[in-house]
Design a protein that fits this description.
The protein has 145 residues and is α+β, with helices and mostly antiparallel strands. 26% of the residues lie in helices and 40% in strands. The chain has one domain: Alpha-Beta Plaits. Strands 1, 2, 3, 4, 5 and 6 form a six-stranded mixed sheet that branches. It is elongated and about 55 Å long.
Length: 145
């Protein structure tokens, strides 16, 4: 069987989507990263998050991989009302940007945001507000020998 680059291809596509948003909206996010950075110093920032594969289906001669990738946006510490409004505006703008680019991962794949979740991420003993933007299932069908 030929080795696949499915996971890295999805990461590259999402990273391109994220950095395109940063370039088009430089006042909304300071930086985009292909993976979780070692520090959250350049907030607000975004990174390509987990790429969970909740199902991998094997049949005679094929393997279907179903991935649920995500992008994570990380904010500053304070959650004042004004900061929360800005956070909501950035999430809304990113959702619009991503929805308008359904082939961001590849020309043969439809990828669109399907949910958001506000969370706190821990790093070095500090907690940072973040929003996880989940994308719908991204699927590849691979031949097997």
């Amino acid at each position: 069987m030929v080795a696949t680059t499915f996971r890295s291809d999805v990461a590259a596509g999402l990273y391109g989507l994220l950095t395109g948003f940063v370039a088009a909206n430089p006042t909304m996010l300071n930086a985009g990263y292909r993976a979780r950075p070692r520090a959250f110093g350049n907030r607000p920032l975004g990174f390509v998050g987990p790429r969970n594969e909740p199902s991998i289906i094997h049949t005679s001669g094929t393997r279907q991989r179903n991935m649920s990738p995500s992008i994570v946006l990380v904010w500053g510490w304070n959650e004042e009302e004004e900061t929360a409004d800005v956070r909501d505006d950035v999430v809304d703008a990113f959702l619009d940007y991503a929805t308008a680019r359904p082939n961001a991962v590849s020309t043969g794949t439809q990828t669109a945001p399907t949910s958001t979740e506000d969370v706190e991420l821990e790093m070095d003993g500090a907690f940072y507000p973040a929003t996880i933007i989940a994308f719908g299932e991204t699927t590849i069908l691979e031949g097997r020998q």
